Batch of 2 targets.
Target 1
Amino acid sequence: MRVPYVNDEQLQASKDLTEVAIIERVRARRQPGELLPLDRALLNSPQVADGWNSFLGAIRQRTSLTADIRELAICRVALINGAEFEWSHHAPLAKEAGVDERGLRGEAENEWLTVKQNAVLRYTDEMTKDVRVSDDTFQNLRNYFSSKEIVELTATIGAYNCCSRFLVALDVGERNGLVNHEDWVY
């Protein structure tokens, strides 16, 4: 970890009512669980933590994307960017949603994913590696998703690129040393 995690004593000591409200919103989103190391790193800047919590909460809990599509995109971003902490939280969700690990770790257009999932894999790869997406990839995506779903998928991929880069840059979860993706638990 490159920045200290805000601990429970620090959280309880806050007298600023705005900060207290932010802390409670972050805690509410994590119910019934505990604050994650990501939350504790972000809470070094309560205003950033609040915006992050609202944005990622919408991405994770209020889109129309199916779980397999959402978690496939999130895990693929984590894999490409080397964010093992992100992977460890989302790979079980991808597995639960029926995403085949071989497909997730494989090249785009692989036999272990559906054609729709392969379209997402290709789109995620291009967005994450190249930023620009080819017309062919985008047109293929249109075969399976509405405009609303494309916006939600694009926002999900963008949000988790932001998240993974934050995690890796600050070594949140203290897992930067696990660079061999084959060792990551699915």
Note: The chain has a mean pLDDT of 94.
Target 2
Amino acid sequence: MSPVSNFEATNNVAEYEALVAGLELVRSLGVWQILVRGDLKLMMNQIRGDCGIKNESLVKYHAKATSLAKSFVHIVFEHIPHSENEDADQFSKLATTYNDELPKEIYVEVREQRAYEETPAKIVLEES
């Protein structure tokens, strides 16, 4: 599922939104160990604690992402050059595609709020 927002976002905010959505998704699938590869060097350095964060909004995203990261038994954040990140290219193309043009196999989650503002959704399963 690819997250899309109904609010304006800088590239850095979009990267953090994708990180948080990805961590939430894999965590909900029961994953306990993960390698997170990203091509935005600044964000990877921030997440690893290698550099500080000046932007107030990014501080909130960082707090959300690091909180989620603590729920994993083992998590590694690795920077990879954009030229080597083919998955990112595919997702960036997807982000600029109108929903009517998307293949039916692709599900898009539209987020109304920023990731750090959202409260976790409660899922109720009923046995029938």
Note: DSSP finds four helices and four strands in the chain.
